[in-house]
Write a structure and sequence with these properties.
The protein is mainly alpha-helical. It is built from seven helices and four strands. The mean pLDDT is 88.
Length: 196
């Protein structure tokens, strides 16, 4: 497996794209946002809620690690991910428009049922939370360019079985979100062929 090099600039570009794409989904009809393609799948809104839950597990850990990290001038050198962590990260990364290694989500990361009885305006908080949380991620990546993150470890959301240095954590979180963006596009395509 080729070495994985991580740069903050690349992460910011991808995160900006991700936040813009998720934001644009608000213009979809409510049926498109809240219908699942089948009984085993999530709706678009549930996928976004899952991303909120997933990053929610990292917010305090990331903030705490950044606060403890020592300031530096500017770290422009790409970060080389460790082999095991690179393997985990690449397992999340979609390949083009395909999700590799489809896997069952742990119970604590599953979205709860979303009340749609009050119409589309009631769905705004899910989108607002996504932008807020991923705005935190963006700020963390930007701050990290002026901090020594090369020794700041945090446990992954599944526990200490996988520990990430902060640049690895940012990459894992981004790849996970990009994977679900592919899932959203798949869901849109399936639903557009159905009569909702």
């Amino acid at each position: 497996m080729a070495a994985l090099f991580i740069s903050a600039e690349n992460q910011i570009q991808r995160l900006n794209f991700l936040m813009e794409k998720i934001g644009s989904l608000q213009s979809l009809p409510i049926d498109m946002l809240t219908s699942a393609p089948n009984t085993q799948a999530w709706s678009i809104l549930e996928i976004i809620e899952h991303l909120n839950i997933a990053y929610g597990h990292y917010v305090d850990k990331v903030s705490d690690a950044l606060n403890r990290a020592k300031p530096i001038e500017n770290d422009k050198e790409p970060f080389k991910a460790r082999i095991w962590q690179g393997f985990i990260i690449n397992g999340q990364r979609p390949k083009g428009q395909t999700r590799k290694w489809k896997m069952k989500t742990m119970k604590r990361f599953e979205p709860e049922a979303i009340d749609t009885t009050h119409g589309k305006d009631h769905l705004g908080p899910t989108f607002e939370q996504f932008q807020h949380l991923h705005g935190h991620l963006k700020e963390a990546i930007l701050m990290g360019r002026h901090k020594n993150l090369r020794h700041m470890k945090i446990p992954s959301a599944i526990g200490s079985i996988v520990n990430f240095y902060l640049p690895e954590a940012f990459e894992f979180i981004l790849c996970h979100a990009e994977r679900h963006l592919v899932q959203i596009e798949e869901t849109k395509e399936i639903l557009s062929k159905k009569e909702l």
